[in-house]
Amino acid sequence: MAVNSSSNKLDNDTLLMLQDVNTSIIISVVYMIVTAINLAGNGLSMWLLLFRTSPKTPSIIFMINLTLTDLALGIALPFQVSYQLQGYHWTLGPGWCRFLTLVFYTNMYCSILTMMAISIDRYLGIVRPMSFRQSTKRKSIAFVSCFLMWGLVLSVLYPLMTTDLTYHVPELGITTCFDVLKKDMLPSTLAWAAFLLTMVFVLFLFPFCVTTFCYVNVIRKLASDSKTAQKEKAIRLAFVVLLVFTLCFAPNNILLFVHSVLRLFWGQSVYTAYKLSLCLSCLNSCLDPFIYYFASRDFRQKLRAIMNLQSMSSADSVKLEQKESMYSTHLVPEGQSTERSL
Prior knowledge:
Helices cover about 75% and strands about 5% of the residues. It is mainly alpha-helical. α3 runs parallel beside α5, α4 runs antiparallel to α5 and α4 packs parallel to α7. About 40% of the residues are buried.
């Protein structure tokens, strides 16, 4: 977003960005592709997770939460495409602008926090099995964690819920949505700094560090054990999650921080690069079904059955399930339980 005083005209860099047709078309095409893949992949994932996958383990609960945010993004993106193709002209009013902007950023940060929760669940199940016992409390903790994630994200993004995010640009005869923010949206430069630092460090950097720590230790633990099909899938899961963080979330949050600091203190801008990085952040909604595939054996089996990829007999299926369950004998001492959804 280009932070601007409500009483001043836009600078030339911002005006040029709003007239950059090529960038607008690129972003629109990416959003259309993401929307199609998002709705198809996550629609199928939601159906499998809700109606075809049981029991509802903590990992499954987190995946349902993640799928919900992804579907919300898929529904919101067509409005963004229309806005881009109309030359950054918003015609649906301030209320819809606030709502769709909130959906966009809630998806990003709820996805980050949910993936952190899944990584902690994997870490406890594989690296710390002594602390990982089957109980009804684990499901309750998962439900409460999801509500806390939403509460944290919405509280941080509260200024976006209470501000008119549209901005009329008389020089171009258009009304933007979130691309130009009034500087008086927050009371002071210190408030802006707190807002941006919380988004970048609390909602991105801290979860990224926790997720990296968990999966690095999961990989190290599994690498020290004998080869199993489970080990390979868990390592693939770790790489997919870390790929989503580094490819989808890191560029956007880094550029958000850099752009905002440059804009607030030096009047400079890297907003075009930031707009392009938003495309990368949306790709997470297309990659999340791969996380489900590697994280849940039940999800894999149901998906294979639907896609007619499961050509084995019942006896072969039992043998495969026994093979994938061997990790529990390698990682968990006798008498202790572990997560079977991996």
